[in-house]
Amino acid sequence: MSRALTAIALVILALGDGEHTLNLVAERTDDTFVRGQADLSVGTSPVRLTVLDEDSYAVLRTLLVFALEGSTVRSAVLVATTAAEPHPRACAWTVRGGWLHPMDTADLQQAVPPCPGVPTVRREVYRAPALDQPHGD
Predict the structure, then answer these.
(1) Element (H, E) at 90
(2) Alpha-carbon separation of residue 67 from 45, 47, 121 (angstroms)
(3) pTM of the model as a whole
(4) Residue ranges in 16-83 assigned as alpha helix (H)
């Protein structure tokens, strides 16, 4: 839990001010997929973090704990979408070795198109910042 909370805090700091949606998709070792989503509003003047739905945030946080721990999750991706003009911005991290690592932008670009028949929202894809991995936890 400590590692997951540290990771979420670093993601929030990396994203900065704005309205953010975090989506975590994980493939479990039993070949099923699980998903969590949380909507956040972040500001620095004054400092504030608003979680729009505590239950969805708890689900995302719990899934991240299992993804980072790794015994029941084969792979996981955390995508952050930030409301921005003229288009939302998106970046992502993959879970490897018990930590979040920036996802390749070409892989993310392929992952974010909507399903056929769903109205498209063009997203500006950028490389996620590297997150310093804590030591000793």
Answers:
(1) strand 89-96
(2) 33, 29, 28
(3) 0.88
(4) 54-69
List of residues 6+ apart from 40 with CB closer than 8 A:
12, 19, 20, 21, 22, 49, 50, 51, 52, 57
Please name the residues in contact with 29: beta carbons below 8 A apart, sequence gap of 6 or more. 71, 72, 73, 74
Dump pLDDT digits (tens) for 29-41: 999 999 999 999 9
Helix then strand count (H, E) for the chain reads: 3, 7
Question: Looking up tokens 């490897």, which residue turns up?
Answer: 96
Q: How far apart are the first and last CA of the chain?
A: 10
Residue 5: phi and psi, rounded to 5, are: -65, -40
